Amino acid sequence: METNTLLQIAKDFGSPVYVYNAEKMNSQYKRLTDAFSKVKQLRLNYAAKALSNISVLKLFNSLGAGLDTVSIQEVKLGLTAGFEPSKIIYTPNGVSLEEIETAAKLGVQINIDNLSILEQFGTKHPKVPVCIRINPHVMAGGNSNISVGHIDSKFGISIHQIPHILRIVENTKMNINGIHMHTGSDILDIDVFLYASEILFETAKNFENLEFIDFGSGFKVPYKAGDIETNIEELGTKLTKRFNQFCKEYGKELTLAFEPGKFLVSEAGYFLTKVNVVKQTTSTVFAQVDSG
Ligand SMILES: *Cc1c(COP(=O)(O)O)cnc(C)c1O
User: Domain coordinates of the chain in residue numbers?
Assistant: First the structure.
């Protein structure tokens, strides 16, 4: 945004103040839908944790996005913002069975990431469609703190445990309607991402009633001018081709889902604060601001 516009906002509304640029969110959303325009059914679930401001949630709802949530509070916030329950996916990690049952009662898509809850939930509610979060064990991502695909990660069910998953599904007769992964936060190497996708496709073949495959997120955004970012257009071309081919093999048109957070909002936010005092000591100059 123009500096003058921002200064005017600070004058009109006072400081400190957060400013969000809906146009930028719009254009980022459009960049993604354009990159995947050749996919018949695309679904972008905005990851609420990136910025859970209710007006931002309403904006993404109005653009046609779904919502990716990781807590029951985010689920309720999404419903308050106007999202249809069916357009909310709930991907918790380590929460109680009761919380997942609460979410299921609200009608949102459940995404389960451990064998114990999968078995308990499937036994009690075999009719409720469930997505399964897989850990493909692919080391993607910018640093090890945000790479959630590695072998000792707490996220997802290991691909080495697929026989266990299949036994639970068979025993409970539960309905698996989606397969999901979210491998990390900074994907720069598209071939690594496509490699993880192959593991997801391979897993998907085990389930007959799928409606969607969710490739998570991890699009790298620039943090400063000239910084590197994920080449969305290249990813779109390559994954679309592979996804459409998979749908043919699978014998059904599936929905391709992503759940971007940072990509949609991180270049659309400003925090304006005013300098109260510039304080010069013998060694340092402090700019002391009104934002605490
Ligand atoms: C954090 C998170 C996302 C969003 O990740 P970004 O890097 O912000 O796009 C998507 N899905 C899940 C399950 C997450 O935890």
Answer: 1-19+269-292, 22-267
Strands 275-280 and 109-112: unpaired
Mutate to test the pocket of ligand 1, among 67, 131, 185, 219 (most ligand atoms within 8 A of CB): 185
The 10 Å CB-count burial string (b at 16+, else e) for 111-146 is bbbbbebbbbbbeebeebebbbbbbbbbebbeeeee
Question: Is the CB of 91 within 6 Å of ligand 1?
Answer: yes
pTM, rounded to two decimals: 0.93
Tens-digit pLDDT profile for residues 199-248: 999 999 999 999 999 999 989 899 898 999 999 999 999 999 999 999 99
- Ligand 1 pocket residue status of 185, Cβ below 6 Å: yes
Q: Give the class (CATH, top level) of 22-267.
A: alpha beta
Residue entry with tokens 């123009």: 2
Q: How far apart are CA 83 and CA 202, in angstroms?
A: 32
Query: 261 in ligand 1 pocket by Cβ < 6 Å?
Result: yes
